[in-house]
Each structure stands twice: as structure tokens, then as C-alpha cells.
Amino acid sequence: MHQHIHRIALVAHLFFCAAAISPFHVAVVHRHGARNTIVNVNQSGVCPSFHAPNGGCGTLTVEGKDMLYHLGLFLGSSYGAHGGLFEEAIHSSYDSTRFVSRSTDVGRTIQSGSAMIRGLFSSLEGTPQRAYPVLHNRPTSQDVALLVWNGNPSVVLWMDIMQDDLLQFLNQHTLELFEGNTTLLEEIGREIGLLDECTPSDPERWAPFQCGLDIQDAVNCALSAGFAAERYPTGVANFEQLTKILEDYNAYTMWGIDNMENGGKYQAATGTLGFVLAQEIIETGVAAAAAARTTSSPYVLLNHYSGHDTTLMPLWMTLGNDSLTNPLFGAAMIFEFYFVSADDDSSHSDSDVWVRARIGAPGQLPGDHNYTFEWYQLYCVNTDGSTYRPDAEMGCPLADWNAFVQLQGPSINIPNAGAGGASCYYDEAWMASVNCTPQDTVSTTSDPSSKICRDFRTNCINACGQHHAMTSHLDCVAI
């Protein structure tokens, strides 16, 4: 009886606290909305013409824009109602210094981020104060936080070295998923227009994994546009099996290849792939807390990140969840930072700043792009060093969440890496395999012959090691 009464009291306490929570800062990370397919072959035959509205491979569609517009509407209804964090700001004017947006340097993410801001400030549409979104971005080759596979020099180098072994594994795995039924892959490939890579009788062009991956993407994009059942009936009938190719590929490239081929040493050294973004979210929350606590001046209310599926998956992995391997179009994660009294839960931390999170996605079919969110149970680390999972709707002290995230960071210090930090990690054997080892002669006419070597040296000043210096031509010479 005593335990039962205690449980009722605890639930009542949590309900009361959750109902009373009023965030002082919000961060949202989302994937872009629905797009045209991105295929490896026959782009002109499979993708809409560039001359058509929203034409071209990978272009954000009307449905994709509407998805993110609805995310903005959701944020507005959640935080812009009476007494809400955004109430005054979103109904007066758009201030890009208080609603800070960042996107990858890719058209579909820039447009998605813009659509989200327009939805958030929808009450200003048709007025002189309407929102003209401001989105900041970094060059793709330097975007370590949002575009890991293109912006992290170490990941780019390592994956280039591993690609032959990776492709061999993925080809075999795709055939196993289809139980050797290459005829079915060929049939769906013909249906879509991908026979250049989906014809088993042509060994020069037959690429089982790329065939399956491109088929899945084409069907998925067609589903979001509403024409999949009519054009790709066989693909739709086998969509679940095709999606398994994508999910397994994502799992293998995100962490599986390191665990299986390298004993987990790579991410143990450099940190999980979403660590940089997670740390940035924490730092902006800390800065907002300091501003909210100490000044009456306006401060950043929303940090907004518009990215890709390859933005969300590394972030989720850093948060302790490696099972989320297929973010839907428009998928989003929201972090709320709020104040509580220090004595509300003294077993965790003496910090009065707490964080909680929710995860969700819009409807994927035309005409239904409303978002559904659920509370996400974070991993946190107590003051005694033990990991725990708090009540999802309450979250945990920011200090405890930060303690968990720090455990996912780099375990080594990269000498002379400068601002590149762990993203400039490399192994001498890697360099030798791409002909990128330091030479003891100075070249004054040409860069290193390997593109991957040039790219790595361009972004990492430590690439020549401790006993060589880099020339203006990216050569490494003895000091």
C-alpha cells in the first residue's frame, strides 16, 4: 500500500511539473522535406525535367515545402500560444538574431529551413512584416556539424579508403536480403528505368546494392508525391524489403563498419559522428540560460538546424540510440531548455537548467503533412557517474545530459590540428594507402596527385605530421 501511494504521489508530482514547464530556449534539428529522387544512373529518364517546376534530381517538391511549413505551424502552436516563449516575437516581426537558422549549403535544405520559418511566422503573411528567412551556412567541405559525410575530413578520408570493402559487403548483403532473387530487382529496375545498374546478365554494369538503394529512393519519393502505386506497383509491393537495404546501409556506414572492421577504434578516438552538433546544441542552451537569467535584453529563443537524414542519424547515435536508421522526410527533434528549482531533484545535479526532448515527423503522403511528436527519453549521467534514463516528459538537468554527451566525444587530442580537432584524425596506414605520406622534397608546381589527399591537407593543417611542414602547394616537407 505504501509503495502504491508513493507511486501515485510521484506521478502527480511529474504531471504537475511537466504541465508547469515553460522553456526559455528551444533548439530544433530537422531533415529536409520530400524531394525528387536521387539516382546513380539515367537521371534524365527518372528525375523530372529541369525545365519543369521543381524539376531535377534531389529538388525539394511542393509536398516537401509543405511538410516543413507544417513544422513551423507546430512550433508556433506549441510555443507561440498565450504565455508561450514565442508569443510576442512571432506575432510582431521576424528577428533573425533571436530565431537563428542554419542550413547545409544545399538547395533543398535551404528551402526547407525557409519553409519552416514561414510556417512559424505564418501570422505575418500578407503584412509588411512577413518573414523573409535568413539561413546561415558553411561550405560543404567544412560543415562538420550538419554534413558529416562531406564536411568531416577524417570521415571522408576513412570512407574513401574503406569504400571497396564496404561496397563488396553491401552487394552481398543486398543479395541475401532478396534471397538471391535478382529477377525481382531487375523487374523493379525496369519499372523505374534503372536497368543500367539492375541487369544481372550484364556483369559490367550490374550493381546489386546501388540498384536496390536507387529503387528504394525512387519509390519512396514517388510515394510522397502520390504516383508510386500507378507507376511502380512492383516497387511498392516490395517497399518494406527495399527499405531494409537503406536501413542496413545506414547502420553499417554510421557505426557498423567501425565495429566490424576496426574494433570500434575510429569512433573511440574521434567521438561519435554527431558529437559536434550535440555539443553545439548544448552550448547554445547554456548561452541562452545565462542571457535569460542575467539580462532583460532580447536573446536567442530558437536555434534551428536544417539538414539531412545524415544529420539526424549521427545526432541520435550520440544521444545513445543507434536503432533510428531511417529518418523520414521532415523528421525533426526538438530540445526544450527550462529552469527548475534546485531542490526539485537533488539526487541528479545542483543545476537549475534542465533539458527535455521530443521526436517526430510529418505525414508522408500528399495532403497530410501534420506532425506527430512524442517525448524522447534521453540518456543522462548522474553526479556519481552512473548513467540513467529520466522520465521522458521531464528530461534531466542539462549538466547531466552534457555529462553523457561528453562521454561520446573524442578520447584523444590531435596534435597541431587547430580548429579541425578530432575531424582531422588520421592513421599513417591510411595516408600510405592513398599516396599521401610526407615527402622530403619541395614541389613548386603541383599539388599531391591524390584528390582525397589534397582535400584532407586543405582542411587539416596537421596532415603533414609533427616533423614536416606544409607548402603552399600542399606538399609535406621535412622541417
TrEMBL record:
Q: Which superkingdom does the taxonomy of this entry point to? A: Eukaryota
The coiled-coil segments of this chain are none
Give the range the annotation lists for the signal sequence. Answer: 1-20
| Entry annotated with the keyword Membrane | no
InterPro entries per the UniProt record, alphabetical = His_Pase_clade-2, His_PPase_superfam, Histidine_acid_phosphatase
GO MF terms, alphabetically ordered: phosphatase activity
What is a single Pfam family found in this protein's UniProt entry?
His_Phos_2
Keywords tagged on the record: Hydrolase, Signal
Q: Does the keyword Hydrolase apply?
A: yes
The UniProt entry's sequence similarity note says: Belongs to the histidine acid phosphatase family.
The name this protein goes by in its record:
Membrane-bound acid phosphatase 2, putative
Question: What is the scientific name of the source organism?
Answer: Bodo saltans
